[in-house]
Design a protein that fits this description.
Blueprint lengths: L1 H58 L9 H27 L1
Length: 96
């Protein structure tokens, strides 16, 4: 009978450990998703700013591609960061 309770205790412990790991993984996935949302919002702000800059330059008869380089590079960097977060989410989900 004591073997039964020892085995039951081990199974309960294993299940609790598994649940704890899954909860931790879920939290980590949500953290990455939050980072992606934040990066997307920053890109959206820069897209709006790029549009305003283009329009202002258009109205003033000035068009220079170099003015937009910094914003475009920032957008590309955030796109790369978002992809890394997506890959990490996929890695975490594969462990489930």
């Amino acid at each position: 009978m004591s073997d039964f309770f020892e085995d039951l205790g081990k199974r309960i412990s294993d299940v609790a450990d598994d649940i704890g790991k899954r909860a931790g993984d879920t939290i980590e996935v949500e953290k990455h998703k939050s980072q992606i949302r934040s990066l997307k919002r920053a890109n959206e702000r820069d897209f709006i700013e790029i549009g305003q800059m283009v329009y202002d330059k258009f109205r003033n008869g000035e068009v220079s591609d170099l003015d937009y380089t910094a914003l475009c590079e920032a957008i590309e960097k955030r796109d790369e960061e978002m992809e890394k977060h997506r890959e990490e989410i996929q890695r975490i989900k594969e462990v489930f």
